[in-house]
Write a structure and sequence with these properties.
- The protein has 255 residues and is mainly beta.
- A hairpin with a 2-residue loop joins strand 12 and strand 13.
- The radius of gyration is 33 Å and the shape is rod-shaped.
């Protein structure tokens, strides 16, 4: 039987390889939580030779990637290696036709691979801000407004002593990949402290500072609030400069 063609116009039995790699210096592998100022080096996530995830749309397509370092192409020969030289590429598509492997497109440039802190646009499987590994590589030939882009969302999982990776979304037509990585390395980041409670406000009542919806701080209130004393004269509570009790107590005694 002749080979089948998929909806990309490629021969079936094709495998895609994503090489997501950071520059080798420590700075490229360090990410900072801007809410707390805490920085962590993620170099321990790097593996040999690569991570692998399966495409959600194409049975014979997989994506290989790494964090904080380049990946190695398979040991067997790859046709068109100049398309995705491991030392220069952070993302590469490799077509598998039987025993022939053909590098076809670069999905990310090696020098562009960086860590950032994601604070919005959480995809499936990501529910909070956290580390995001990001790389790009030129214009997408299938979408004039897009670039080749790979995104690795790294989330905390205390049980994932070995990183667990899965595909969030892959879009051939827009040249984009979104990958989820669960790892206990991400749990190093302490959660942002909760905002401090609103300052209490006080007003002076009968010579005492009591909490109020609107007022002043406790120190200012205590400076301005003087305890008023009363005495009972002719069955009425009147101010006394000679000493007495507060208004509430006076009202109880006088009458």
């Amino acid at each position: 039987l002749p080979p089948q063609l998929d909806d990309r116009g490629h021969t079936m039995f094709v495998q895609v390889i994503l090489l997501a790699a950071a520059a080798m210096n420590d700075n490229s592998c360090t990410v900072t939580n801007p809410e707390t100022g805490q920085s962590e080096n993620m170099i321990s996530l790097r593996v040999q030779p690569y991570f692998k995830v399966q495409s959600k749309h194409y049975l014979n397509y997989s994506f290989y990637f790494n964090v904080c370092g380049p990946i190695d192409l398979p040991d067997d020969p790859v046709t068109n290696p100049d398309v995705c030289t491991p030392e220069l590429s952070s993302a590469c598509e490799v077509q598998y036709i039987a025993d022939t492997h053909i590098a076809t497109e670069q999905y990310g440039s090696y020098p562009t691979a960086i860590f950032t802190w994601n604070t919005e646009n959480f995809p499936e499987g990501v529910s909070a801000p956290g580390p995001l590994y990001f790389s790009t590589s030129g214009d997408c030939p299938r979408s004039t407004t897009k670039e080749f882009t790979s995104l690795v969302y790294i989330v905390c999982d205390e049980n994932a002593t070995v990183p667990q990776v899965s595909m969030i979304a892959d879009d051939y037509w827009e040249c984009s990949l979104k990958i989820l990585m669960k790892t206990n390395v991400a749990c190093r980041f302490n959660p942002a402290p909760p905002p401090p409670p609103p300052a209490k406000e006080y007003r002076c009542r009968d010579g005492q500072c009591v909490e109020a919806e609107k007022g002043v701080g406790i120190e200012e209130c205590e400076q301005a609030c003087v305890r008023l004393e009363y005495e009972c004269l002719d069955n009425q509570c009147v101010r006394s400069e000679k000493g007495g009790v507060d208004k509430t107590e006076c009202d109880k005694l006088c009458g």
